[in-house]
Each structure stands twice: as C-alpha cells, then as structure tokens.
Amino acid sequence: MSPDPARRSERSRQAILTATRELLFEVGYPKLTIEAIAARAGVGKQTIYRWWPSKGAVMFDSLLPAPAGAPELALPDTGDVEADLKTVLRAIAEEFETPYLDQMTRALATEVHNDPTLGEEMVKRLLMPHLEATKERLRSAQAAGQLAAGLDLQAAVEMLFAPLFYRWMLRIGPLTPEYADTVATMAVAAMRPH
Amino acid sequence: MSPDPARRSERSRQAILTATRELLFEVGYPKLTIEAIAARAGVGKQTIYRWWPSKGAVMFDSLLPAPAGAPELALPDTGDVEADLKTVLRAIAEEFETPYLDQMTRALATEVHNDPTLGEEMVKRLLMPHLEATKERLRSAQAAGQLAAGLDLQAAVEMLFAPLFYRWMLRIGPLTPEYADTVATMAVAAMRPH
Amino acid sequence: MSPDPARRSERSRQAILTATRELLFEVGYPKLTIEAIAARAGVGKQTIYRWWPSKGAVMFDSLLPAPAGAPELALPDTGDVEADLKTVLRAIAEEFETPYLDQMTRALATEVHNDPTLGEEMVKRLLMPHLEATKERLRSAQAAGQLAAGLDLQAAVEMLFAPLFYRWMLRIGPLTPEYADTVATMAVAAMRPH
Amino acid sequence: MSPDPARRSERSRQAILTATRELLFEVGYPKLTIEAIAARAGVGKQTIYRWWPSKGAVMFDSLLPAPAGAPELALPDTGDVEADLKTVLRAIAEEFETPYLDQMTRALATEVHNDPTLGEEMVKRLLMPHLEATKERLRSAQAAGQLAAGLDLQAAVEMLFAPLFYRWMLRIGPLTPEYADTVATMAVAAMRPH
DNA sequence: AATTAACCGAGACGGTACGTCCTGTCTTGTA
DNA sequence: TACAAGACAGGACGTACCGTCTCGGTTAATT
C-alpha cells in the first residue's frame, strides 16, 4: 500500500529539496508549485506525491534540519545572564533581518497557520531546541541567584523571544541590535528576585 | 483608466464582503475562491477585480473595521495598572481562543506574511488603536509613579501583547486566563521603577 | 418604447459605420467587437444597441450601399452577349481577388449563414441588382435571337455567377480572367437555341 | 513539447466528437462552446485544447469522415450522362434541404470562411471525392462521344455543382428536383460536342 | 541468470480556479 | 430624451495547476 522507504531514490529526494529551496527563493511560497518543483528537479510529479503529503511538507523538509540532525544547542554562559541573552537576541534579530531567511521564515509561518500538523513539526524541530537551550541558561542563572527562584521558565523564555517575533511578523518596526538589548534588559528585569 | 468610485454599487460591495465573511468561516481562507465569492454575492467576477487588487484585500475589507470607523479605544483605569492590564490581556486571550476569531485572525495573518501592504493596513487599522490605548494607560501609570519614568513605552506595550500572540500563532500552549495574568505580572515587573 | 429616428445623431451613425469598416479590415469579422467599435467611434455602446439588432447588422450597414441608394445597374450591350458577359465576369473575378473585398465579402458570407434575415437583406441589396441587370441583358440577347427563346432566365444567371462564387468560397482555384472566360463560354453554350 | 499521440485517450476523443455533434444540433454552431463540449463529454477543457487548435477544428473532425475513411465514390453509369447527372444532382439537392444536414453544412461553411486551413481540409476530405467521381463519369461520356472531346473537366464539374451550392448558400430559392434537372440539362448542353 | 515487483521519469487525464474579455442592460450626468 | 461613459451580472475564453492515472524503463531483491 504505502511505499517502501528502503527503495526510495536518494538522488530524487535531494533534487526535490534543492529545487524547492531554489524556487522558494526565486518565486516565493505562494507561487511555488509542485509541477515546477518536479520539472526543475527532473522528477515525476508522482515521486513527490508518493513521499510528501502536501506542498507545505516538502517546503518544511527542504528548509528544516532533519529531526535527527537537530544539534544540541547551548547558550554562552559568561556568568552574566543579561549579557548572554543580549548576545542571543541580537543574533536572532540579525537573522530575521537577512532577506533570504526572512523570506524562508515567512514561508514556514504561512503554512503553520493553515496546517497545525506542520506547525507542531516546526515547533518541535526548530523552536523547541532554542527554547530548551535558553531555559537551561536561565536555570543556571537561577542557581547563581541572579534570577527569582520561583520563576515560570516557560513564560520567561517566551517573554524573551516573543517581542522579536511580534515585531518581525507584523513589521511594526526594525529589529535593531538596540531593540534586542532593550527586550533582554526588560525581560531580565522581570525575572530578577523580588 | 481606473474605475470611478462615485459610481460604485454599494449593494454589490456589501454583498461581496458578506459573502466573503461567510465563505471564510465555512471553508477557510486557503479554499476561499473569487469565483465562489462572486457566485454567493450574485455578482460578476469583474466587479471584484475592479475594486480589489487581490483575494487578500477582499478578505481584509470584509474582516476589518473601516479605517474611519476605528473607534477610540480606552483601557479601564482603576488606579491599579497591573490589575487593569490583566483585565485587558485576559480579554485578548479569550478572543484568541474563540474558534471563529481564531480562524479569521489566522486568515489575516497568512496574508500579512505575503503582502506587506496588507500587513501595514492591518497594523494601522486593527493593531495601532489597541497599542495606542494601552500606551495611554501606561502613561497615566507613569504619572502616578507606578512605572519607571524613562520607560520605552513602545517596547513596553509590545512586551505585553507579544507573548500572547506568540503562543497563539505557534500553538505552543493554551491561552488561559492564568497565562494572561503571568504575562501581565512579569511585564509590569519589568516596567516598575528601579 | 422604440427610439425616435428623428433624433438620431447622424454624426454617431457615421462614426460607427466607419469604425466598423476599419476594424473589420484590421482584425477581421470574428474578432470584431461591439466594445471596440464603440471605443473607436467615440460612442456609447448603448447607441449601437439602440439602433442595430446585432453585430452582423452593423457590419451589413457599414459595407452595403443604402437600400435607397442601390444604383440602377446596366450591363454593356455591344451586341455580342458572350463578349459582354465575359467583361462582367472578369470584373467580378477581379473583385474577388482583391484582398480587401475578399475579406469583406467573407465577413458578409459568414453572417449570412447564421442569420437568414441578413442573408435576405444582402441578396436584396447587393445581389438582386446584379442578377436583374444580367437578366435584362440576356433578354435583349434573346430578342436578338442569340439565346434560346424558352430559356429559364433565373437559372441562366445563376449558372453564370455561381461557378465564380463557388471557386472563391471554397478556394478551389484562382479566379483568373481565363476562368471567367471559360465560364461565360460554357454558360452561353448552354443558353444558345437548340 | 507537443503531446504524444500514442498516449491519447481514444475514449475521450470519441466522447468529445459525439458531444460536439450533439451540441451542434441542439444549439447551433455560433452558440457552441468548448466548455459545454467538455462538460457534456466528461472531459477536461485542456484535453480539447491539447489535441485541437480551435473550435472549428473540433467541429470538422466531428462532422467529417476520417481522411483515410473517405470511400471511393462512383457515379451511376446507365449510358445516359444527362440522366445520371440528374440523379446525382437531385440527391444533392435533397441533402441540402434536409434540416439536419443543412445546419451542419452551414456550420462547416461558416468556419471555412475564416480559416483557410480548415477550408482546404474540407475540400480535400469532402468535396474532392465527389468532384473526382463526377469527372470520371464525364470522362466515360467523353469516350462514348456524348461530350466534347476538348472539354475542361474541372470547369465542367464546377458548373454542375456550383448552382446548387449558390442557391443553397444564399437562400435564393428552393432546391427542388426540378431545379436540379434544369441545372443538369443546361450544363450538359454546354458540354456537348460542337 | 531470469524473473518480478517496486520505484522512477514522463506526461495525459478530469477537474477547478484563475484573471481577462465581451455581452447586453442599466445608471449617471451632459447637452 | 438621445447621447458618451462606463459599472454591472453573467458567462466563455484559454492557461495554469491540482492530484490521479497509466506508460515504458530502469533497478533491486528473489527465485
């Protein structure tokens, strides 16, 4: 019934993912079509439909690191939480400002809205590692007494990342390093003891 | 060249917007088609293409209050900022949890990604009034000495709304009243003097 | 109910007929549209619909002489019927070979197929005068004893014109002067006494 | 680039031709639409556009015998040319008077005007066989000394068929058996020796 | 080594929607 | 009230993709 992954052509798989990435960049997600991917990849359409359930799924696989390949992220730990978080937030802000990454991330986000399954997938593969790594750094700061003991860590990391995401998605304003610093400063203020 | 707005049929305009709203709810944004809108509204397709540049623009007009009609919002002011903000955030959380509003807001968000023009429009029509009203309340609290004098008000309001939006969009967790309270508490902590 | 011809704008009428003729030549009958005629003539579409029942009718009026204006045709009469008919048939053959007239006549013919009313109109306005004039010449030849007395004149004139029309319409072969002569010779042979 | 005829669906081809024939009869050629054909045939529009260049071409294939299938026609040969030709012309006159055939032939003729390619096709497939068969009969009569030896056979056959076609197309008069006889008699008179 | 069963490239198929064009009617403002 | 202008409901156009379906032609792995 369902196809045999053992006989899958790695060659075709790579060609499809590469073609998808190229086309995503060239024409954007809304104008991305299965036919174009197949043509560019030199592949039959059926080969795409055989292995992926939707256009969004192909795009996800083409942009996201393989589930297994998710590296163990770790934040810098200089002993100064606020400084370390600033470093991280500045890096994220810079990424969002990169046109290529901006475009790709918006493509992902578009699909996340309309397909909860893919949303879950993305959160798991892409977001959770970052959130968990950040939580780990906050725990270390807690242990050092820099942050409140009873802190809701989940809410705390969301408070760190959410403002950048919010600005980026709604294009409310530019994601400058200064803004990243402001967010870090305010968030840390909210987490301090007392 | 471009059509004369003075001769526009108000009857057709309303029929189109109503049909769009109904279909959005019934089939969802990705399956919304111009043909279906025209058919439901009893309108020629050309009449839609004449007045709107894209499917997204029709949807926007059907969901968003008219620019002129944007009401002057004002937040409650009991004297206790934190309590007032909790009230507001709880209300927003509740809205996002309503299936109908959830669906509509996702439709808007999808389009915002792919059309900066519409994004700007939405921010201006829908978001800014809320942000401005909230800023006003924060100013009043500053005057009362409850918040730091040098506070970056724009960053502050974003820190209030962003976490709810973040959770909602990425479906990271439920938007409970408790979560709304947590966000408000933390954000206010970040804004306090010292 | 129906419009008052007394108030009809002669200016518009002429502009419409001229525009129609120009467009017929430029784009051909199948691509001729009422909108284009109106635009070219600087006229409202309604003005066309008010005075003509169909696209074909406009074309007819634009190409055919006014009913009243049908000139009294008369064939040459040198005393030699065959020679006179050759003169006439050669002239007709030449007309059909003129690209402009070829195109216009085909436009008329197309419409004649699909609208018997227009067909009748065309026959009456364009064809009958020629047929009658030719009949008249044949009668004169009969009187001179050159043609059979009991000749079916209607059948005879049709036998003269039909072959040219046939070749032209079906593009079976070129309408050369030689062919015109052959037709005249054979037809006259068929009409001679005995 | 162009489609592979080997993979063409015979099922669809037949369905399209049948649907076209039915619709031609039901609504007439000017109101025949590709959409209606596709719908009636249970076929995608693209399948029609893939294999035929125009609406006229579909109609032609639906009405005309396949090129290969053109039967070898032969006229009766009783030894009396005039009688044999009367038989043939009466048959043709009768065909043109049949409402169904009249309608179909007019549809063909309409398209012939506007597309020389189709005209050629029709002449080759439909007309030439008849003309050639008739020429053959005339040759046999020539051999028997009934017709002039130096006769221009092409002009002769055209003189036989053209008058019927002329009357039919321009609706000048009814195609009665008597008229068929008159045409045959006159034409034969034109072909006789001397 | 021959067989066989799957994946593969290719692309025809029945469909749906697109965005454009035109039809014939209706409405508005001008002369 | 005829007119120029053009918005309107409707509907066909020809195109682009969708997702499914054959069709040979390679590959494997099994006989």
Automatic annotation (TrEMBL), chains A, B, C, D:
<dbReference type="InterPro" id="IPR001647">
    <property type="entry name" value="HTH_TetR"/>
</dbReference>
<dbReference type="GO" id="GO:0000976">
    <property type="term" value="F:transcription cis-regulatory region binding"/>
</dbReference>
<protein>
    <submittedName>
        <fullName>AcrR family transcriptional regulator</fullName>
    </submittedName>
</protein>
<feature type="domain" description="HTH tetR-type">
    <location>
        <begin position="10"/>
        <end position="70"/>
    </location>
</feature>
<dbReference type="InterPro" id="IPR011075">
    <property type="entry name" value="TetR_C"/>
</dbReference>
<dbReference type="Pfam" id="PF16859">
    <property type="entry name" value="TetR_C_11"/>
</dbReference>
<dbReference type="InterPro" id="IPR009057">
    <property type="entry name" value="Homeodomain-like_sf"/>
</dbReference>
<keyword id="KW-0238">DNA-binding</keyword>
<dbReference type="InterPro" id="IPR050109">
    <property type="entry name" value="HTH-type_TetR-like_transc_reg"/>
</dbReference>
<dbReference type="Pfam" id="PF00440">
    <property type="entry name" value="TetR_N"/>
</dbReference>
<feature type="DNA-binding region" description="H-T-H motif">
    <location>
        <begin position="33"/>
        <end position="52"/>
    </location>
</feature>
<keyword id="KW-0804">Transcription</keyword>
<keyword id="KW-0805">Transcription regulation</keyword>
<dbReference type="GO" id="GO:0003700">
    <property type="term" value="F:DNA-binding transcription factor activity"/>
</dbReference>
<dbReference type="InterPro" id="IPR036271">
    <property type="entry name" value="Tet_transcr_reg_TetR-rel_C_sf"/>
</dbReference>
